[in-house]
Amino acid sequence: MWAVLLLFQCSAYKEGQVSGPLCSDLCEQNNIHLGKCLSSVTEKKVYDGAWQGREVILKVNERWFMEFQELQKKTDSDLTSSFQNDVVFWVETMFGSCSQCSTLVEKLISYADSNHDEIITASEARTFVTLMYQEESFMLMALNESKHSLEFYGYCGGLYLTEKVPLIASSVYGEKWELSEISILPDVFEPVEEISKNFGKKILEAAFSIPYVYSILNEALTLTKSLIFSTFSQEHIPSQREKFDFLYSLLDATLSLSSNPYGLVQSCDIHLGNFGITNDSVVKFIDLDFTYPFVFLRTLLKQKQCASDEDCWVGAMEDCHSSCDLNTNTCTSVVHKQDLVNICETHIPFVFRRSSFISELTGNSTTGLRKALGQLVVFCQTLSVAYSAEQLRHDILTVKEKLRIVERNFSKMS
Known about the structure:
The longest helix is centred in the last third of the chain and has 23 residues, at 389-411. Helix 3 (62-71) crosses helix 6 and helix 13 (339-351) runs antiparallel to helix 15. The chain is globular and about 70 Å long. 45% of the residues are buried. It has helices at 2-14, 23-27, 62-71, 76-95, 101-112, 122-132, 135-142, 169-173, 190-207, 213-217, 240-258, 294-302, 339-351, 355-359, 365-381, 389-411, and strands at residues 32-37, 44-51, 54-61, 152-156, 159-163, 167-168, 265-267, 275-277, 283-285, 291-293, 324-325, 330-331. Helices cover 47% and strands 12% of the residues. It has 16 helices and 12 strands.
């Protein structure tokens, strides 16, 4: 597959059909070196590799090739004359008429100008518009200033490069519940137990489509020069402090993605396999295929036909769903839950499930922890969907403070 991909991209590049800031590295200077294929899905190929002395991830979506062929039917003059309108249209489709959308348009146009001559050629327009239409590459470019999204290094044709993080969160905290671990869940909050039983199944099913998860699971998990993590192996059980710090950074990541200048963002596939951990112990979103601006997510839901509420979901059903309007047999655009609630319901109980953590506590602390976690989850479920960054920030900071109280209370007993 890589040989075919390389042949197509570089042949088209030499013919002047595709462009990109990394085409010279890929096709002329041989600065991009391929590693292992890390994807198990046919529609998107993912590899690890190296570029200019750094480890990278290389991705390409098969949809890019189909859309590229469609744009080849347009004349060069049509491509260049409609380019700016195409970018404006897609930005407004994704984020609506936001106050800073013109800034995003300018930013994307600068990405398209791969040789920085301030002139968009037909090759640049054709290449970039098809790349922009791929949700993940669009989101990576839009959110590239966030320290909680992967660094976007550039592209050649439909192939784009991102940073590679040393750890996947699921390799540290696990992928599924064991029956012996369910006892951590609050007796007074049975819905959490039901969520937890479904959580492992969801992780395993989703993992087949998550880039480079399995590869990193099979590698030695060593993290050096870390402020939080120290010398992990597959048998390492994170300490109490490591668990809390991971969750704080996970909440920060959720807030960071929606603190961009353009609008709120929602992940519709928020399991632990989609989060990486850097050498600085920062949690990053590593797969944005099902991460959407809130405006676009509501549009996707509203376009769905339905016979019941079970038809009204995008990505993972538990993460992004609405209700079915039986009068029109279409889904409503009112999202039921946001990432914050999903993290509270699934990840917080899951991260603290290990009996080894409970064994550190004494007296009635086990019961106290179960109640504290249950109360936190119940509180999260009372939160309404936030429609502004200010409200989301308030809610996330409130949850972080409640989690800090839990940490302070139970760290004294360990």
